């Protein structure tokens, strides 16, 4: 049995717990030879480099580092038989390695320190729980997905400070590009740090990317081959330079001479810090940009019962209500006579009908109780409010926040986030073919993931399957959510047709699809399995586009 791991209440800073000589947690980046350069680098994006987690002592020397990563390398036994046909990803653990012996190492990024009471068994148990990448997802997953998910697990257990993992991954890609440009064929052992300054720089780069994608490049009077490739994801320094050249042609007659000269330098091949210069220039007038008008939206990510009158389990009832400028919505409502069994540190099952409007004020109201069947009075577990004032200049956006709401005999924690520029997404999954049956007895799981929202929309076991006819939607719960405009939304499906006789159940679809937020409209993708297929779609509901 895997050892139990305790989630720490304080997960803010790993560098302030008072322990000495704690082991260091690094993200290590390795180049993948020809896959890390040229068109393959543009095509693969983050996956153009290999990512791994290293655990090293404070003063690292020699073979004293443990390495963890997801690998799909071929496994062959002594007779030449392939042991892993299809090469699925698996967890690779290497004990006692010397990072300097890996000649493809481009650098290490310090992301946290490890508590001294975390044993090797605890660490391996934690990483073994991280899901393996899915090669058949859309787009295919890689070691990068595993490493980011491993970092999320480390954050949950308080071993790595909280930060925006999407911005972090983009910053790492830029860091890898820069390191590769200096690579001399030997391991690069220097250590980089990632903090608020680096996160803000990356946020600026992301803004540049979205602005460039919104430009009507057909109006730019330059040859097609000279236009920056802004559709491939993150811009390389060379693409930033090409974008500057393109904007010279677009803005040349509208910029003062000094500023025009600064941009013309890019025409002569200057690429140093091009993205930073582009960030400063892109916001200036003179270009026609069409983009959606997002607004602040909030989501309650989870509510956890920390203590329920010291009982394990307790019987919980009560309500959680949110009131914003669109009116009230109830996310949790259990009557006293229907109290549910809840254990400490268990997340409540919430009912969500829409995101919270955060362009005005809103209030989250908790009124939760422990039901006692005997003559003693019921116990107040959590009672209080979380208030958001839209006019408060100290508000924090785009960062998950946790608030503890106490009662006389317990407490609960609310994890929520307010997204500054978000849009509402409505997810739908339609059965196209369920093993040719009409109806199909559907069971399995549908979930979504984004920077902030990770949520199960449908989850049923085989003996609890539901009838769904081809062309009809699979009923989902909580299928409306807020997504930042600079984020992505991934829909994961693992659906089956239940057969009550002796024959095995039939796989309808097992895959995933990723969607980029749009100002409006609906985007659809087809996901298939061995015996069926489903259509997944996202409808984006935002304000109308604004012209120049």
UniProtKB/TrEMBL annotation:
This is DUF6598 domain-containing protein. It holds the Pfam family DUF6598. It comes from the Eukaryota. Residues 297-538 form the DUF6598 domain.
